[in-house]
Structure formats: C-alpha cells, structure tokens
Amino acid sequence: MSHILCRRAAFRLAVLGFATVATLSVAQAQERRRVENDAPTAAERKRIEGVLQQRGYVRWKEIEREDGGKTWEVDDAYTADGKRYDLRLSADDLKEIDKHLED
C-alpha cells in the first residue's frame, strides 16, 4: 500500500514540475514576442510620450523597441522650433542614450 502512495506522490510531483516548466516557457515566449514585436504597450507608450513631452518634443513618428528590448528608438522626434531628431532611450529608465539631429 505504501509503495502505491509513493508512486502517486512521485507522479504528482512530476506533473507539478512539468506544469511549472510549461508555465515558465509560455511566459518566456510571450516576452520574446513582445520584444520582437517592437511596438510599445499602451502603458509603455504613455510613459515614453510623457517623457518626450517633458523634454520638449512636440511630435514623433515611430517608437520601437531595439537591441533585444534594452532600448527604445524614437524616429523623427520634433522640437517646437522644428528641429528633427532620432533618439535612443534606455528601456528601463528612459534616459537618453543617443540623440542624432536629422537634416
């Protein structure tokens, strides 16, 4: 009888382990898709646009994730005086990493 209980317990642990691995794999796949998709979520977009406005930018064309998700690239960010920049921001704290004036 105890031998059967041990087998059942081992089976339950194996199923639990498999379920845990499967859950982690799904989460990792979702993260990869999000990074590969390049587009910010609505919350990320709101945060990025708020920072851009604080820094004096009035409009921009595209915001996309780059460098394996480590940075945001902002294309054609315009200041009030009409200057156009391409920007690269750190994905975690949105610090400006690169700023290139476009002609």
* Average pLDDT level: 84
The secondary structure category is alpha+beta
From the 3D coordinates, which CATH architecture of the largest domain would you assign? 2-Layer Sandwich
What proportion of the residues is helical, as a percent range?
40-55%
Sketch the major β-sheet: 5 strands, antiparallel
- Strand % is 25-35%
Q: Helix tally?
A: 2
Description:
This is PepSY domain-containing protein. It comes from Roseicella frigidaeris. Keywords: Signal. The chain has 103 residues and is α+β, with helices and mostly antiparallel strands. It folds into 2 domains: 1-37; 39-103, SHC Adaptor Protein. Helices cover 48% and strands 30% of the residues. The protein contains 2 helices and 5 strands. Strands 1, 2, 3, 4 and 5 form a 5-stranded antiparallel beta sheet that branches. The model has no long low-confidence stretch (mean pLDDT 84).
Topology (elements, then pairings):
Blueprint: H1 2-37, H2 42-54, E1 57-59, E2 62-66, E3 71-79, E4 84-90, E5 96-102
Antiparallel strand pairs: 1-3, 2-3, 3-4, 4-5
Protein name: PepSY domain-containing protein
Signal peptide: 1-29
InterPro entries: PepSY
Pick out its properties.
alpha+beta, SHC Adaptor Protein, five-stranded antiparallel sheet, 48% helix, 30% strand, rod-shaped, PepSY domain-containing protein, signal, PepSY
